[in-house]
Design brief:
195 residues, alpha+beta, Rieske Iron-sulfur Protein, 2 domains, three-stranded antiparallel beta sheet, 4 helices
């Protein structure tokens, strides 16, 4: 009888100790998981393209960075292939492979010509350029064809995020990985599969 009672007390004490160990370690184990904020910072972002009119853009956040999604107008697309523009760009053919995924290595730096997805961070010192679609803006220069202008140190980029010559920014704006989920939805943070 005494032996049975001792075994019972040892079992209860063991179960209580195990439960206490789990309860005591729970906060530590929970702290190892990334927070909801950290998880959302790196998670892919879906964008509804129907909300963007031709010639306009929106800004979304992905991995803590601003990302522009521009729906280029027909006039913007025509300007991107003019020889006069190509002559003043550092890398008009997007040869530096680290600046865009392979599927965006084209004059439009995009999967579909009318939609540009680019990181909104100047490649000079990390300022955020300004969307300036107005042609010939006096404060930028009478020959301004429209695009992105960085007010920090006067770097200029076209509507494909390609950098102009003779400005501080050394490279084109970075194109993040993205793909089309359907005709009207893109997902930023996941690469398009090449077929």
């Amino acid at each position: 009888m005494e032996r049975r009672r001792r075994n019972f007390l040892v079992s209860i004490a063991s179960i209580t100790a195990a439960a206490g160990a789990v309860i005591a370690s729970w906060p530590f184990l929970a702290s190892l998981r990334p927070s909801a904020r950290a998880r959302s910072g790196g998670a892919p972002v879906k964008v509804d393209l129907r909300k963007i009119e031709a010639g306009h853009q929106i800004t979304v956040a992905w991995q803590g960075k601003p990302i522009w999604v521009l729906r280029r107008s027909d006039a913007m697309l025509q300007r991107l292939t003019k020889d006069s523009l190509l002559e003043i760009l550092v890398d008009p053919e997007s040869r530096v492979s680290s600046q865009q995924p392979a599927y965006a290595r084209n004059p439009f730096r995009s999967i579909r010509p009318e939609i540009l997805v680019t990181t909104a961070i100047c490649t000079h010192l990390g300022c955020v350029p300004v969307f300036r679609p107005d042609i010939g803006a006096r404060d930028i220069g009478g020959d301004w064809p429209g695009g992105y202008f960085c007010p920090c140190h006067r770097s200029k980029f076209d509507f494909s995020g390609r950098v102009f010559k003779a400005v501080p920014a050394p490279t084109n704006l970075v194109i993040p990985p993205h793909r089309y989920l359907d005709d009207d939805t893109i997902e930023i943070g996941v690469s398009e599969k090449l077929t």
